[in-house]
Amino acid sequence: MRLAVVGCGAVGRSVVDLAAEYGHEVVAVADSRSAAVDPAGLDGAAVLDRKEHKGVVGDDDPDDVLAAEYDVLVEVTPTTLGDAEPGFSHIARALDRDRHVVLANKGPVAERYGDVRAREADSAGIVLFEATVGGAIPILGTVADYGPERISAARGVLNGTANFVLTRMAAEGLDYEHVLAEAQDMGVAEADPSFDVEGTDAALKCVILANVLACGEREFTLADAEVEGITQIPGSALDLAAEAGRTVRLVGEATPESVRVGPRLLPETSPLAVSGTRNVVQIETTHADGIDLSGRGAGGPETATAVLADVGRLPPLE
Hints:
alpha/beta, Rossmann fold, 2 domains, 12 strands, 21% strand
């Protein structure tokens, strides 16, 4: 497949770096200020080297990527809420040209799922978005394999930053502010960690899951989710939980009817009581009971593997 990659953060750079290993060719790459386009195929290493040393990927305009001759648009720009722009417009332009789309950007399928599906229905292109939920963990692929109509719920730990903070608080008896500062120093938490610690990131992933599980019967957005973060959890609460053989994790749950995210008291032996930045999801199925999936829920190469797995699932364009 010929790939056009829009977004050159950690995930976009990893897609460019790994595409050839998966048998695909990158013909266009855009960052926020520039683009590189070559119908014969780009030298990915040269593009990434220029990005690292000059801050741009090429001499072309970012809009040129959307007009390039490609098979799959890989949309990995930062997630935005509300109208989910510019990600949604990127998707629309690709589908209007009957091209496939693969997303790591959560915004369009969390905030405008119905619009995305309507555009897809009028196009020969297909939209896939495994990378939007759980990084390298094949959550949406598993849901698709079993059939969303045969799954009653998906719940789990879907934000590595929040899980790292809670794990460290419990293990070391430290307070939230101390551990958060440590996480920021280590690069586990952003300078502005609110998206993670307030539960928004986990909620967006659960909204996407709920949209898939609802099978078109209803549409969810972030506004439909009940969300509580971890910022108000005192270290003493984790100490008391440990004395009772329990721990606290930020758990999200998606069903065809609802989305909820908040701290939950769990047995220390629970499959959901993963440590550090690890993610885990339990899928409740009609005939196969519960299925546990765990792995790296974030990271450039990890998320890029989910993107490229989706590319591999797409049929050739006619």
